[in-house]
Design goal:
The structure holds two protein chains of two kinds.
Chain A: H1 9-26, E1 30-35, E2 38-44, E3 53-57, E4 60-66, H2 68-88, H3 96-113, E5 120-126, E6 135-139, E7 145-148, E8 151-154, H4 158-168, H5 175-192, E9 206-212, E10 220-223, H6 225-233
Helix pairs in contact in A: 4-5
Chain B: H1 16-22, E1 40-42, E2 45-49, E3 54-58, E4 62-64, E5 67-70, E6 76-80, E7 83-90, H2 91-112, H3 118-131, H4 133-137, E8 142-150, E9 155-161, E10 167-170, E11 173-176, H5 180-190, H6 197-214, E12 230-235, E13 238-241, H7 244-265
Antiparallel strand pairs in B: 1-4, 1-7, 2-3, 2-11, 3-12, 4-5, 6-7, 7-8, 8-9, 9-10, 12-13
Helix pairs in contact in B: 2-3, 5-6, 6-7
The chains are: A alpha+beta, B alpha+beta.
Chain lengths: ~230, ~270
C-alpha cells in the first residue's frame, strides 16, 4: 500500500485558493451599484443568451462571474430555494441574506471538501424602498461573504474597475448616469488589461439589469438593445 | 431551508410541481368522498374574445351548500404577465391550483430564462386539472378558464377545461361554473365577432348580472358594500384588471337602462 503524500493544510488551502482565483480572474468584470432607481447590475458579456445576471425573486437578483456552468448551477439552486420558500411561507419572507448564507455554506463546503473548489464569485442583491437599505452580498469561491454597500465589483481586474468607480460613484445617481459610469469603468479596465486588448464596444457587449426600486411584484428588469443605447447616449 | 441541489439524473428541471414533490410538499388526495363536508364552492366565470384580446370576468360569491360563505372572493387572477386564469369549483383546491400555476410559470421563466409559449401554459394547466382528477372524484372538482395574449401570433386566445384535464380552445367565448348556462346564453345572444373591448366588458357585466338573477350561487353587484365582479382585460399590454370604480359605473348604467326598459313596458 502506498502512503499518500503529506501536504500541509496551509499549502493545500493556498493551492486551492490560487486555482480558484486564477479561474475567476480570466473572466470579465461585473459591477453592481445601489442608486436612486434601484440596484443596477452591469456586466461585460459577449453572449446574449448565456447570462451572468438573472432574476431570483421579487426583489432579489443574482450575478456570477467565473465558470458559467458552476454559477449557473448556483443560480438555479437559488431560484428553487426562493420559490420553495415563497410557496411554503410567503413572498415577503424571501430575502437575500438567507440565500447568501446558503451560498456561503455551499461554497465553503465545496472549497474544503471537494476535489476542486468552484471557480466562481457571486453577488446576491436585494433592492429596498430606499438606497441606504439595499443589500448586496458578495460571496467568494471559498465561502467568504461580504456585505457591501454603495457599489461592488466582481471578477477579473475587479480592483481597477472599483478604483475607477470609486472616483465618481454617487448614491443618488440616476439610471443613465450610473450606466454611463459603470460602462466606462468596465471598459477602462479592458483597455489596461494586457491579455485582452479589445475594448468594450458599447451596447453589444454589455449585459445590464435593474432591480427597480418603485416596482411592486417582480422588480427585475433587463435593459437591452435600443433602451440601453438610449441610456448610454442620453 | 437548505439549497436544493440535485444530481444530474434526479434534477426536476424547470418544473416547480416536480420540485415540490421532491421536497414533499404536494398536497394529499382526500381518501374518501366528502359528502358530509360542506365545501366552499366558487361559481360563475366568463371569458370573451374581443378586438384587443380577451375579457375575463367572475362574480364574487362563494357558497357552502345553501349558505353564502364569502361575499368578496376573487376568481379571476393573473397567471403571468400575458395570461390570466379564472376558476370555478371547490374554492380551496382551486385557489391552490392557481397559486401553483402562477408559480409554475414564474419558475419556468426564471430557470429557463424565457417564458413558456401560450400553448405550453395552457397544457400545463390541463395537466394540473388532470392531476386533480382523484380529488375531483372525491368532490373537489376544479375547472378553470385560461386566457392569454399570444405574443408570437399577436392574438388573444382562450381555453376551457373539463374535469379530466381536457383542454378545449374556444374561438368566441367560454363560461364555467354553476351559472354557466345562463351566462352562456346571454353572451351567445350578445356576442359579435371582433367587437370592441368596451362592448365586451359590458356584455360580461350584463351576463353576470342576469346570471345572478337566476342562479343562487352567483353573486350580483353589491351596491351597499361596494363589491363588484372582477373584470380583467388581456391584451398586448398584458393582464390588466378593470378598476372597481369603472365596473361600478358600468353596473349603474346597466341598472338605469333596465329601469328605463321596465318603465316603458308598464
Amino acid at each position: 500500500m502506498s502512503m499518500p503524500f503529506y501536504v500541509a493544510p496551509e499549502q493545500m488551502m493556498k493551492d486551492r485558493a490560487d486555482f480558484a482565483r486564477k479561474g475567476i480572474s480570466r473572466g470579465r468584470a461585473l459591477a453592481a451599484l445601489s442608486i436612486q432607481d434601484g440596484v443596477l447590475l452591469c456586466a461585460e458579456n459577449h453572449s446574449r443568451t448565456l447570462r451572468k445576471i438573472s432574476e431570483i425573486y421579487d426583489r432579489v437578483a443574482f450575478a456570477g462571474v467565473g465558470r458559467y456552468n458552476e454559477f449557473d448551477q448556483l443560480r438555479i439552486a437559488g431560484v428553487r430555494h426562493a420559490d420553495l420558500k415563497g410557496y411554503t411561507y410567503s413572498r415577503e419572507d424571501v430575502d437575500a441574506r438567507s440565500l447568501a448564507n446558503q451560498y456561503a455554506q455551499l461554497l465553503g463546503q465545496t472549497f474544503t471538501h471537494e476535489l476542486k473548489p468552484m471557480e466562481v464569485e457571486i453577488l446576491i442583491a436585494e433592492v429596498a424602498t430606499n438606497s441606504a437599505e439595499d443589500q448586496m452580498f458578495h460571496v467568494l469561491y471559498d465561502g467568504t461573504i461580504n456585505d457591501e454597500s454603495g457599489f461592488t465589483v466582481l471578477g477579473g481586474a475587479a480592483n481597477s474597475v472599483a478604483e475607477k468607480l470609486d472616483q465618481t460613484y454617487e448614491q443618488d445617481w440616476q439610471l443613465s448616469d450610473a450606466l454611463k459610469a459603470a460602462a466606462e469603468a468596465l471598459s477602462h479596465h479592458e483597455k489596461d488589461a494586457h491579455e485582452n486588448s479589445m475594448a468594450v464596444s458599447g451596447v453589444a457587449d454589455l449585459e445590464v439589469a435593474l432591480l427597480a426600486r418603485n416596482h411592486t411584484g417582480r422588480a427585475f428588469q433587463r435593459i437591452e438593445g435600443d433602451e440601453l443605447a438610449t441610456y448610454l447616449r442620453g | 431551508m437548505t439549497l436544493p441541489l440535485f444530481e444530474a439524473g434526479g434534477d426536476p428541471g424547470p418544473n416547480f410541481a416536480a420540485l415540490l414533490s421532491v421536497a414533499g410538499l404536494t398536497p394529499p388526495v382526500p381518501a374518501s368522498p366528502t359528502d358530509q363536508l360542506n365545501i366552499v364552492h366558487a361559481t360563475t366565470v366568463v371569458a370573451i374574445r374581443c378586438s384587443e384580446g380577451v375579457v375575463m370576468a367572475g362574480d364574487r360569491r362563494a357558497t357552502a351548500g345553501n349558505l353564502i360563505s364569502h361575499r368578496s372572493i376573487e376568481k379571476v387572477f393573473p397567471a403571468d404577465r400575458h395570461s390570466g386564469v379564472a376558476i370555478a369549483g371547490a374554492a380551496g383546491p382551486a385557489m391552490e391550483m392557481v397559486r401553483l400555476f402562477q408559480l409554475q410559470l414564474e419558475h419556468y421563466e426564471k430557470v429557463e430564462g424565457k417564458a413558456l409559449s401560450l400553448d405550453g401554459k395552457a397544457n400545463q394547466l390541463g395537466m394540473m386539472v388532470r392531476n386533480n382528477l382523484p380529488a375531483a372524484l372525491q368532490g373537489f372538482a376544479v375547472v378553470p378558464l385560461f386566457a392569454g395574449y399570444d405574443t408570437t401570433r399577436d392574438v388573444g386566445r382562450l381555453f376551457q377545461y373539463d374535469v379530466t384535464g381536457g383542454r378545449y380552445e374556444e374561438r368566441e367565448y367560454a363560461v364555467m361554473g354553476s351559472g354557466s348556462l345562463h351566462a352562456g346564453t346571454v353572451i351567445k345572444l350578445g356576442y359579435q365577432p371582433n367587437a370592441s373591448t368596451d362592448t365586451m366588458i359590458d356584455l360580461a357585466v350584463s351576463a353576470l348580472y342576469r346570471t345572478a338573477e337566476e342562479d343562487a350561487a352567483t353573486g350580483g353587484p353589491d351596491l351597499v358594500r361596494g363589491i363588484y365582479p372582477v373584470v380583467a382585460v388581456l391584451s398586448v399590454d398584458g393582464f390588466q384588471r378593470v378598476e372597481d370604480t369603472e365596473v361600478e359605473h358600468r353596473f349603474r348604467d346597466l341598472l338605469v337602462s333596465l329601469n328605463n326598459e321596465q318603465a316603458n313596458t308598464r
